Amino acid sequence: ICEVDNGRDSESEESEEENPAEMNMIGIFSRRFQLSVPKLASRRRVVQELLSDLLQVSRSLFSDSFFPVLEPVIGVGSACEGWSPHKEENVVYCMFVPLKPPHGYAFHLEPDTRQEMPQTSMRVRVELVCTCTGEQPDQKMLCFLHHSEEELKRNQVASLLHTLCTGPYLDGEKIALWFQTFVISVWSAVPQSRHYSMKVIPSSRSCKMKLMKASGRSLFVEMVFSVQQGDSDIFLSCQPTEAQFPPSTIWLESYAVAEAKFFRHVSMQAPPHSCHLKCLRLCARLLEGSGLSIYALKTTVMHLLTLIPLSEWQHRYLLMRVDDIMRYLRCCLEEKRLKHFFFGNEDMPEEISLPPAFQGAQPLNLFQHLAQDPAAQTEALQEFDKL
């Protein structure tokens, strides 16, 4: 992430061997499209510290309950990847909150047999596990499998199945409402409450918060509840997409954690002052108002970051890389084909853990809708050419 220092980009100290005309053009672009990436890293740290404190409170409150175990948050999305196309006051810091089953329960992922959606969807079945056997049986906890319902009601709080599930399946709406209520009730116990006032913004499947300082500056945070697939970087998310709003017991496969991990990998391998984040920000600003997906743009850049050596992403090559990105994207529109980055990709960094089925899978086509609708493809190409 390129930090701004006293109003100047650190790239301004680049070698004087660069072409003055090109550097002048890059300067014009930078001012016109506000390419100096906002102070995303420092604000992200503030958000992560806040949520860490919130989850610490949740662990002390719910340690003897049957609510899901809330794992440490994982920053995802453009703000946490370091390239948000939005103005600083509109940036939303999105955090995945992985859920683990509490003691006495197990989560089992079941494919959604209807598969009415293009994105893989599953249900999270909650099953009871015997707690009265094993190496160290819990003497305080009655076993849901081997004690009568009357005895359980008399001695224990309601089970997870009776609170945050619909039938045997984890319910995203019930989890969101439970957590929103928790945040409101414990806010005064969190250290950050001395510096920020907090408002929970209504949301049916996530917990959205607006944090306000006395100065009037605001921070927007969204906590998205998720379930990890095995030990991979692929998660199931209860957050619907713009195109899909499934039932509350349907969880959509999300690649957001793997994407964030990919950008961290690139930042560690790339030369100082790499322009790949500025390229993303510039191209996203160029696409504003068009019908072209920012996710398609992001996928394009991820592909090019594995095809073009990272040494060729130095700041002085910004205009060339922007040209590569836009040409690649147009070729994909013409061919009505843009491969999903995480399926069947032989160039995947080893650090990213994918389910075994992803390795030999046929790449998904993000432009499948254009292949099925020639009129939509024609319109997309016309919009792109106007850019």
From TrEMBL:
Subcellular location: Membrane
Region annotation Disordered: where it falls in the sequence: 1-21
Primary location: membrane
InterPro entries, sorted: ITPRIP-like, Mab-21_HhH/H2TH-like, MAB21L/cGLR
Keyword presence, Membrane: yes
Keyword Transmembrane helix: yes
Coiled-coil stretches noted in the UniProt entry, renumbered to this chain: none
Source domain of life: Eukaryota
Membrane topology, record value: Single-pass type I membrane protein
Biased composition (Acidic residues): 11-20
Any single GO CC term annotated in Swiss-Prot or TrEMBL for this entry: membrane
Entry keyword set: Membrane, Signal, Transmembrane, Transmembrane helix
UniProt feature, compositional bias: Basic and acidic residues: 1-10
Pfam families: Mab-21_C
Residue span(s) of domain Mab-21-like HhH/H2TH-like: 290-349
Family that this chain belongs to: Belongs to the ITPRIP family.
Protein name as catalogued: IPIL1 protein
Natural source organism: Oxylabes madagascariensis
